[in-house]
Amino acid sequence: MRLTRTLKEYTAGTWTLFSVGVVLLMPLLLGIGIALKALPIFEHVTLTEMLTSGEWQPSSGKFGFLPFIVSSLVVTAIGLILMIPFGLLPAIYLTQYAPPRTLKVMRSVIDILAGIPSVIHGVWGVLIVVPLVSVYIAPIFGVNTTGYTILAGGIVLAIATLPFVLHMLLEVFRSIPMELKEASLSLGATYWETIKKVVLRKAFPGIIAAFALGVSKAFGETIAVLMVVGNIVQLPTSMFDAGYPLPALIANNYGEMLSIPMYDAALMFAALVLFIIVLIFNIFSRLAIQRTTQK
Amino acid sequence: MIEEKFFKYLMAVFTYSLIGLLFLILYEIFKKGFPALSWDMISQVPKGGFYFGKEGGILNAIVGSLYLALGASLLSILISLPVAIFISISLVKYEKWQHIIRLILDLLWGVPPIVYGAFMFSIMLSFGMKASLLAGIITIALLITPVMIRAMDEVLRNIPLGLLESSLSLGATRFETAVIFFRQALPGIATAFLLGFAKGVGDTAAVLFTVGYTDYIPRSVMEPAATLPLSIFFQLSSPIEEVKARAYAAAVVLTGIILIISVFSRYLSSRVSKNTIS
Fold first, then answer.
1. CB-based contact B175 A286, cutoff 8 Å
2. Test the A interface: residue of B175, B234, B255 with most A CBs within 10 Å
3. Are residues A258 and A273 in the same domain?
4. Are residues A191 and A231 in the same domain?
5. Residues in chain A within 8 Å Cβ distance of B116
6. Under an 8 A CB cutoff, do B202 and A119 touch?
7. Given an 8 Å threshold on Cβ–Cβ distance, is A93 in contact with B8?
8. Please, what is the average pLDDT of chain A?
9. Helix/strand/coil (H, E, C) string of chain A?
10. Closest chain A CA to residue B83
11. Which residues of A touch B174 (CB under 8 A)?
12. Residue A113 belongs to what domain range?
């Protein structure tokens, strides 16, 4: 009896330690695994050339990532611009004005939105956003386009990432201490002044961090953007050009890359760039959020 | 005063527009997909000429997705359950370590699925492994483990410390205490499982190169499998209308599965409060 108890305890303990080890080592494993595979590319092309050249001809050994990096940045920027009002205003409303029941209902809505798979956002983007851009938005600017554009990518990206950002923002606003608001109100400030000058100021680092997390999520979003963004290798000059973000590059070319030398290393380099950018954004914003929401 | 009123209405409009957005997405998907949905569609595998608009269905993708998601969430729970319990029992006195582990989990959560896919693909190349259900299951398990641990962690950390103290003081081993915690948090753990399952059903980018694609239902984990998101993705890019219509039908099936899981997990988490001691 004693023995089985000890044995169970020992087995469970060992398995737990193993699991914890796997989880703790995972970021390191991911980084090393990708970096090792990306390494061969550095023997052929320099880092500066890859990051600043716009020439992309894998078959003749030219790997300039600039079109992809710029596309990624522009699509993400458009997504962020759209996310700011649709994230911030509902978050303030739901935490400061709305009755608890509304907050509960809206939480469910946000959760369901967050659960919608990326590919469904893509389908919806093809059905609604692409025609919207081509028929309604582009003509305003006097542009003729199929609708498969950077703008469409940005809109779909915003919709796909918004629930995640909203969730973070609600956490941030919820953690603002009530005493702070009470103090401000008792000094004669109106409710709106309190929100503007006390709540928003207190929440500011958290808000920035929530959007930074959204940006990093958006940066890695693959399928939804890929389906509407056009995927043409070029340096985009306007938001009505087709773009080709980094994740789309990886997703579109993984099948055929084995026949061309260095192609797989180049794609792994793209994955490494994604990984590093996302990791840096995440570390800073998670730390900032942890600091805001605790106390 | 006017400023406050203006902003209040503006904020309300933006807030309720979110409900509008959800309905718009669901409405469009269902409107396009329902006409294309039929019993054959969900009960048959693709037949000859399927990708030119001939007969057959997407059963291969439905079953493939369910196998993939179920396998991945089962594999993931083997890792995530001990870690979640470890954080709340063994590390209870080491708050700093709890923070560090939670931070690492959040970082892992932030890594894009496509990066997991690329990582797994390079490992498969090194071992000479072909795209298969097993490779897909491992990739998805890696992807959902951080989410599942964090979800369980949120439930476990709300269990009062007194329970831990009284269990240990009565002479229970850590494992036996863990079992008690497990039972306390069971509805929450089930919710976490469903969350991981839903993520596994819906993910596309991570399985793009790892799980392959086939017209058949896989009979072993070493065979490739089709998944719903990939079947939507491939068929939507077809120029043939009938094939596109199938992509919409598959989108309805996928959305339906996700919504059912979501409703079910909401029901489960509403029961969390009933079973636990507070």
1. no
2. B175
3. yes
4. yes
5. 30
6. yes
7. yes
8. 88
9. CHHHHHHHHHHHHHHHHHHHHHHHHHHHHHHHHHHHHHHHHHHCCCHHHHHHCCCEEHHHCEECCHHHHHHHHHHHHHHHHHHHHHHHHHHHHHHHHCCHHHHHHHHHHHHHHHHCCHHHHHHHHHHHHHHHHHHHHHHHCCCCCCCCCHHHHHHHHHHHHHHHHHHHHHHHHHCCCHHHHHHHHHCCCCHHHHHHHHHHHHHHHHHHHHHHHHHHHHHHCCHHHHHHCECCCCCCCCCCCCECCHHHHHHHHCCCHHHCCCHHHHHHHHHHHHHHHHHHHHHHHHHHHHHHHCC
10. A20
11. 9, 12-13
12. 47-293
Report the chain B residue with the minimal C-alpha distance to residue A105: B19
Boundaries of every domain in chain B: 1-36, 39-275
Residues A33 and A88 in one domain: no
CB A48 within 8 A of CB A130: no
pTM for this model (two decimals):
0.89
A236 CA: distance to closest CA in chain B (Å): 23
Quick: pLDDT tens for A152-197.
999 999 999 999 999 999 989 988 888 888 898 899 888 888 988 8
Search chain B and give the residue with CA nearest A85: B14
Number of folded domains that form chain A:
2
Q: Do A286 and B103 touch (CB under 8 A)?
A: yes
Q: Which CATH number fits domain B39-275: 1.10.101.10, 3.60.15.10, 3.30.450.20, 1.10.3720.10?
A: 1.10.3720.10
> B121–A254: do the CB atoms touch at under 8 Å?
yes
Is residue A81 scored above 90 in pLDDT? yes
How far A114 CA sits from the closest chain B CA (Å)? 10
In B, minimum Cα distance to A191 occurs at B4
Nearest CA to CA, how far is A32 from chain B (Å)? Answer: 10
The pLDDT value recorded for residue B4 is 84
> Is B154 exposed, middle or buried, given 0-12, 13-18 or 19+ CB atoms closer than 10 A?
middle
Amino acid at A207: I
CB contact under 8 A, A220 and B115: yes
Q: Please give the mean pLDDT across all residues of chain B.
A: 86
pLDDT in tens, A53-69: 878 887 777 888 898 99
With CA atoms as reference, the chain B residue closest to A94 would be B15
In tens, the pLDDT along A208-266 reads 999 999 999 998 888 899 999 888 888 888 888 888 999 998 888 876 666 677 888 88
Residue B42 confidence (pLDDT): 78
pLDDT at position B278 is 45
